[in-house]
Amino acid sequence: MLDIIFIIFGTFGHFLAIHTFWNRFSGSSRIILVTLSLSMIFHMISSWSKEIFFESLIRDYVSRYSYMMSITLQQVFSLDRLVFIKFPKFYKSIFYTLLFIIIYVLILGISTCFTLSNDQIQLMWLVLFSCLIIFKLPMELIAMISARRKYAQTTGANLNQRFDLSISYEITKSFVLGTIFNIFLQILLAILAVPIIFEFIDESISILSVLHIIVILEMSMFPWIVLITNKKWRNKIITICNKKKSNKVHVVNLKGQSILTNPSQKDYFDQLEASWNI
Fold first, then answer.
1. pLDDT for 199
2. What keywords are assigned to this protein (predicted)?
3. CATH assignment of the domain containing 159
4. Which of 48, 61, 64, 193 is surrounded by the fewest CB atoms within 10 Å?
5. 48 to each of 51, 52, 118, 207, 236, how far by Cα in Å?
C-alpha cells in the first residue's frame, strides 16, 4: 500500500516538474527532463505491477530498462546544465548537439545491455552506477557557483540577462538538494546490494522488498524536493494558498483607525531589486 502512495505522489510530481521547468529549459535540457521523468514513472509503475500481478517478460524488461535510463540520464542532466552555464556559446553550437546525440545513443545502448544481462550482473551494474551518481554533486555545485558568480559580475547589465542568470542559479540550487537526497539513497541501496552480490547473505523477499521501496522512494520524492526548494515555485504556491491581499500599505492612526496609502514608485523598485538579489 505504501508503494502505491509513493507511485501516485511521484507521478504527479514528475508531471508537475515538467510543466514547471519546461519554459525555463531549452533544447537538450528539455529532452533529458522529459525522458528522465518518464523513465522514473515507467519504472515505478512496472516494478509495482510486477510485484502485484503475474510475471511478465516485457514488463520486466521495461522495469530494468527504465531504471538504467533514469540513473544514466541523471548524470547527463548534471553535465548538460554545467555546460549550459559555463560554456553557453558551445552549448548552442552544432558540435554540442552532435555530442549530445552520441551520448544519448550511448545511454540507450547501456540501458539495453543492462536489461539483457542476468541478475548477478545487474546487481553489479547497480552498485557501479550507484557509486557514479556521487559525481553528480560536484558538477551541480560547480554549475551553481558559476551561475551565482556570473550573476554577481553582471551588475549594471540589462534586466533580462540578470533575470535569466537568477533563474539558472535557483534551478541549479534546487537540483543540488535533490542530488544530495539521491546520493544518500543510492549509497544505502549499494550497501544493501553488496552482500547479495558476494553471496554473504541469501536473497530474501524482505531484502528485495526493502530495495524496491528505496528505489520507489527515490524516484517519487526527487521531483518534489526539486520543486519545493525552488524559490519561484515555492512563492507561487504560497501566493495561491494565502488569501488575496491588498496591494496597499495599511497604516493605523492614533485612534486605531486604518489609513490606506498607496506604495510609492521607490517601494516597487526596492521590492523588485530585493527579489533579484540572491
1. 61
2. Membrane, Transmembrane, Transmembrane helix
3. 1.20.1070.10
4. 61
5. 5, 6, 20, 16, 33
Q: Are 253 and 259 in contact (CB under 8 A)?
A: yes
Whether 16 and 227 have beta carbons less than 8 Å apart is answered as yes
In DSSP terms, 260 is beta-bridged to 250
State the pLDDT confidence band at 38, using cuts at 50, 70 and 90.
very high
If you ran DSSP here, which 8-state letter would residue 229 be given?
T
Q: Which residues contact 47 (CB under 8 A, 6 or more apart)?
A: 63, 67, 212, 215, 216
Task: Report the domain count for the chain.
Answer: 1
Cα–Cα distance for residue pair 249/26, rounded to 1 Å: 40
> What is the reported pTM?
0.74
What does the block give as the cell for 96? 554540442
Residue 274 domain-assigned? no
Residue predicted with more confidence, 123 or 61: 61
Let me know how long the chain is: 278
In 3D space, the residue among 107, 143, 130 whose CA is nearest the CA of residue 31 turns out to be: 107
The answer to whether 143 and 85 are in contact (CB under 8 A) is: yes
Give the structural domain span for 178.
2-248
